[in-house]
Batch of 4 targets.
Target 1
Amino acid sequence: MAESEPVYIITGASKGIGLETLKYFCTIPGYIITVSRSIPDELSQILNKNQKKICHFLGNIEDPEISDVIIETVEKRGGKIDALIHNAGLAPIAQIKDIDVDIWKRLFDVNFFSIVDLTQKALPYLRKAKGRVLFVSSGAAVKSKIGWSTYCCSKACVNMYTKVLSQEEPDIYTLAIRPGVVNTPMQEYIRNNCQNGFTKEDCELFKGYEKNKQLRDPKEPASILFNLAQLSNKVPADCNGEFVSIDDERLASFKTFVTPKP
């Protein structure tokens, strides 16, 4: 293993955007460290085919021991990180009157504090590579929605964290992306559980995305994450620290997959 080998970290790699991002990275040189709380069949097949290329940790991303073993692996692979992609997250549906504070804490442990912990531990290795930290955020960070308070608030924190990180760590490029409405298990969860807190109008809206074939293929945001993560690709400086839609013209050259129109 050469010391210059690229090292990439992807959280929430078991499905959706995280899984599609992993697939992209399997096509180029480099070592990939992944985390997920489950190993579905498709991920299992990828891991079996890439045993020398991928180091996968099964566990809860909010567990500090997970971030510790990730960093130990980084040190064994040359002590640098080219890109850290924060994708893991939960999006439960319930209204504020029904959400105990312990649920808020659990949600923030997954969606926000796991990011804080792993990023802080990764900073020396990101600085060494002049690497990149990429966050999968959400439109919910900037648009409130009845029944989604925990998700909205946690993603808003991610956006501000992105901004401050870019100011404090000028040698590390940071970006939070707004992926749009993507055909992932989260969308299926919303359709099946929206009655637990969403308005009737929002339930119809989210069910309509699938019915009317308006969901993006997860390969689309994954292609942007994949291309942004490669240090050989020059990134737009005016996006550093920002929350940017994948449809933003500044990211057009990084979107190498576009969801086919129905």
Target 2
Amino acid sequence: MPAAESRSIRPIAEQTDSRPPPDAYVAQRAAAEWSVLSLDELRTCGLSPDQVTHRLKKGWLHRVYPAVYAVGHPSLSMQGRLLAAVKSIGRGAVLSHFSAAALWGFVEWDDRHPEVTVPRTRAECRSGIRVHRTSVLDPCDVTRREGIPVTSAARTLVDLAAVVNYRLLRRAVRQAQSLRLVNVPQLVSTLRRLGARRDARNLNRILATGPAPTRTELEDMVFDLILDSGLTRPDVNKPLLLAGRRLIPDFRWPEQQVVVEADGGAWHDNQIAREDDAERQALLEEHGERVLRVTWSQAITRSGETVARIRAAGVPLSRGSRVGLFGL
């Protein structure tokens, strides 16, 4: 055998191991888990307890909760924080209550302690995590969102009723409806299945008004003003096709062809938005719709005058209503 050829062949025992190092597995898995891995997951990737300790000292891993670590850096996203809490509590735990509502997009996350529900009567507590225990957590109550185990949209809102006030719960329910993630029958069904709950009073009060998929707090304010004044209930954010263009009026009475638009600064206080509003209004009016615009100031400080404008446009009082809240 030629010398050159003999040098190119090494004994099998000396050949390089082709398997990736454990850190490669850690990085790959962390990328799919919001940079958060449990101790068991790190061991599955091939790290021994001593190797985990070494990486903690080197700053490659960062402890979030006992046996739960951030990989590479300690600055976790909201999703990473929430997933870390679920992993810390362990098998069967799901994100719930306010934390679940934030993950679904029903409320704004405010950096409070994550909330997790477990389907058992006892669970180990964790500092910095609020643990809820339940005897009812059916398969239909559990799903995954953005890779995180979480209560379903309907179960989230039912649980949320126990930890927030009426106004925030109402905003969350209406936002969930606007996102088309839940509807009234689903919420009613979930409430009935879970049985009597003293904390469901506010949710029942909200559901009694029927579907109301508002998108902003100003829309909430205007919609409640309409209902409290005794006016006929309008369509809420119901798509309308005009001249091949899909429009979504905030509130509309189809029979009277009256539209009310809630003009909040966040949506309408720039040149492009104002031009779009003008174009929408012209198209609506061209097709026989009468468009009224209501600002924050008009809804709050001139509520009686605002209701009078809507009534003058042709919107009647609902059946059985007397004069309405404002005596108009």
Target 3
Amino acid sequence: MAWSPEPIKSTRIYEEIIRQIKTLVAEGQLKSGDRLPPERDLAEKFRVSRASVREALRALESMGLIEIRAGDGTFIKEISVEALIEPLALVIFTQRGAVAELFEARKILEPPIAALAAQRAAREEIQEMEHILEEQAKEIAAGRTGVRQDAAFHAAIAGAAHNRDISRIVTALMDLLAESREESLHTPGRPGRSHEDHRRILAALQGRNEAQAMEAMLDHIVAVESLVMQQAGEGRERAGATRRQEPG
């Protein structure tokens, strides 16, 4: 194996081992399926005790980054997009302001994805999107939000780009934004506007117009972002007013 670990100087030795191995994976020096050297060799390379190596390996296994096979060795696992995005979910639950960063990610990712879908979508995939929007229209007409169809439509576009990792990323982003998306769809008039935006996106996909698909998707995300961030600001103002009214 070509990589050369740095000697460990940290007082929390096992954490530094974890950091170095994760860095090697991120840089591509360690790839999915690669077998790590035995504990004894790792201890010599890192210049630490075997106990520290063992502790680091157990932690890496619990993170899903490695697989320890009894009698066979320790191997780097295939890292899924979900595993990379999962830590972001914790941020969303603890820091509401991170929603703005997720919308920034959506504005970067989803318009080009819509362009790919305009280029690559199969006829059956376009038909499925049409069906989703028909169902969304029925939900809205019945006075509901159509939130399930909203998520399904975006997932269908990602799937129509015919790139598995793109589909996973968009699914993860939509899951992280599920609460704020549902809140925005409870705003009077918002479900209908969302449906109109989706219709515009679909028309661009049907016409195989990549530029229009990008523009329609970006306009849609910007509109939703504006509403969600406005609601978040109003929520903070209400919370502040409540605190000011409480007796000291």
Target 4
Amino acid sequence: MAKPTQERATRLIYGFHAVLGKLRRDAGGILELYLAEERSDVRMRDVRRLADEENVRSIQADNERLERMVGTRRHQGVVARIDARQREVKLSDLLETIEGDALLLVLDGVQDPHNLGACLRVADAAGAHAVIVPKDRAVGLNATAAKVASGAADSVPYVTVTNLARALREMQKAGIRVIGTAAEAPQSLYEADLSGPVALVLGSEGEGMRRLTRETCDERVHIPLHGSVESLNVSVASGICLFETRRQRG
């Protein structure tokens, strides 16, 4: 007697940024693609074209159905059902697929899963192309981090690297400026030029960036603090840095 097949665990992602990124990086992980029948603009045509090229099944749906699926109106007419199993993303592959000016968030040694999940959520909201972390001295994308991320663990590429300093140099060779954050940096975040391809590096909750990471950065900036606290939670600092970059880019 044949054994019953185990049902595959799936999740939903939505929005052009998340779905297009998934199509470009891991189209095989998309099981079904739901597209709003009401939309026929350039962005939707790009999604349809890429889905056809990658042989991803697409299903026409109205906006009400898409809203029921994801529980929000902010789906932009694009919803994908994906394989929930985490797939490893290589830095070299990521750098080859980025279109436009790169915006990367690099976390050096974040060990609190709640902070990691919040950083992923902020990165998704700011439209970052990926979150990059070292394999050692970091919490890893566990169940707690994924839950706090509220879906961003599926929509934002999560890249683990063996040697963070080497990975930063690889980004620099690809034309990406590496900007670290440190309380003692002389230049304010708001004085820095954040245009063009940028990787923002934030250190761990207590110790900040490690020495080699700090020395590899092209420049360092600080976030001005005007109250009595001496530092910010890493996810809060990530949000400030990412959205200041977005503000400067208009």
